[in-house]
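To illustrate the input format used throughout this study, we show a single complete record. The first block contains the structure-token representation of the backbone; no residue identities are included at this stage. The design step must infer an amino acid for every position from geometry alone.
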């Protein structure tokens, strides 16, 4: 049995993860696609729940084995990718896969799966508001904040290539928009 793919992509700080977690709680036929990464786990993250954490060498080995549906070096020496076995696992359970991946990865999956995939871009209301949100989150020093903002402004250029854009101005509106888009797509 093969299921579908619901792909959420956005610059960091756009509220993408909140939306994805909301949908997972709501829809029992959706399962979160756990990515592999070579970055170190953060303190509240768990192996096999948030990511499969592997070393950069192991990651490169898997790239050579063609184990990934898509992968990227999102930051230097920090690889992220979707394992083929992960999506197969979800489909075998009779579920659809829900992705929280970066913009280029999202578009790569869309290109590969076409109508079986729905690609949704979560857009912050503006770069200024994104900067305020990232600053108030307080997780970054000035250099990595700049890095995130540069990446965000590049990523915003890709928004129009997605099937849908959800502007995350008020979270409750963004949640209900995302829910409606996903429900309609899964019904088709
Ligand atoms: P973080 O380190 O904050 O968890 O994630 C950094 C970025 O990598 C985010 O934009 C996240 O969506 C993206 N990302 C997570 N998993 C994947 C993946 O499997 N493939 C790609 N291309 N990006 C991913």
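Output of the design step:
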């Amino acid at each position: 049995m093969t299921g579908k793919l619901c792909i959420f992509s956005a610059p960091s700080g756009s509220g993408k993860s909140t939306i994805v977690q909301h949908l997972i709680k709501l829809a029992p036929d959706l399962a979160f696609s756990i990515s592999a990464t070579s970055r170190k786990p953060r303190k509240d993250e768990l192996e096999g729940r948030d990511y499969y954490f592997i070393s950069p060498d192991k990651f490169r080995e898997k790239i050579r084995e063609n184990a990934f549906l898509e992968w990227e070096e999102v930051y230097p020496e920090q690889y992220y990718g979707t394992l083929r076995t992960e999506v197969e696992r979800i489909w075998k359970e009779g579920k659809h896969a829900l992705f929280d991946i970066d913009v280029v990865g999202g578009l790569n999956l869309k290109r590969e799966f076409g109508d079986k995939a729905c690609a949704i871009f979560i857009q912050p209301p503006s770069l200024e508001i994104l900067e305020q949100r990232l600053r108030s989150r307080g997780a970054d020093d000035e250099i990595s904040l700049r890095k995130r903002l540069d990446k965000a402004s590049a990523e915003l250029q890709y928004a129009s290539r997605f099937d849908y854009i959800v502007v995350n101005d008020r979270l409750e509106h963004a949640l209900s928009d995302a829910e409606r888009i996903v429900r309609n797509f899964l019904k088709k």
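Structural context for interpreting the output: The longest helix spans residues 171-187. The pocket of guanosine-5'-monophosphate is lined by residues 12, 35, 39, 70, 72, 74, 80-82, 100-102, 105 (CB under 6 Å).
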